Amino acid sequence: MAFDDLPAGWQVWNSEETRSILAYRPDVFDSESFPAPCLPTIYLSKGRRGRRPGQHRPAPEDPWYVTLFLEPDVNRDPETFDSREAAVAGVRDLAARFAAGELDYRALYQVPREDYLDELDELTGRGT
Questions:
Q1: Contact 113, 25 (CB under 8 A)
Q2: Closest CA to 49 of 65, 62, 72
Q3: Would you write out the chain's pLDDT as a tens digit for each of its 128 residues?
Q4: Residue 85 three-state SS
């Protein structure tokens, strides 16, 4: 399977032919320890992901997009790839950098949630 060797903390939530969704530490983002909408996710999609489910029909020439979401309206600019294999490698790399605390996810927020981000720093090793 394409995502057998994900970094610790990441798991596949859904995987289809033209899109996959990976979640970071769903055991922690359970609406008690952290708000469930803050669950970090990586979306892999053929073509640009639409706002409405079921509305997107990718064309064969569409690139593959890899996007990190921290919340529904807080995301990192997507990376694009020419093939699914390259995009899956991009997902693995992004997931590894996130889990290792190498991404500056605080910069994605216009209005930071300091307590939440401090806890996320602890989970990803940025707080040490």
A1: no
A2: 65
A3: 578 889 999 999 999 989 999 999 988 887 777 778 889 999 999 987 655 555 667 787 899 999 999 988 899 999 999 999 999 999 999 999 999 999 999 899 887 788 888 888 888 888 65
A4: helix
Q: Could you tell me the two tokens for 41?
A: 């996710």
How does DSSP assign 39-74, residue by residue? --EEEEEESPPPSSTT-----TTPPEEEEEEEETTE
- Whether the CB-CB separation of 105 and 126 falls below 8 Å is answered with no
Residues 83 and 80: their CA atoms lie apart, in Å, by 9
Beta bridge partner(s), residue 68? 42
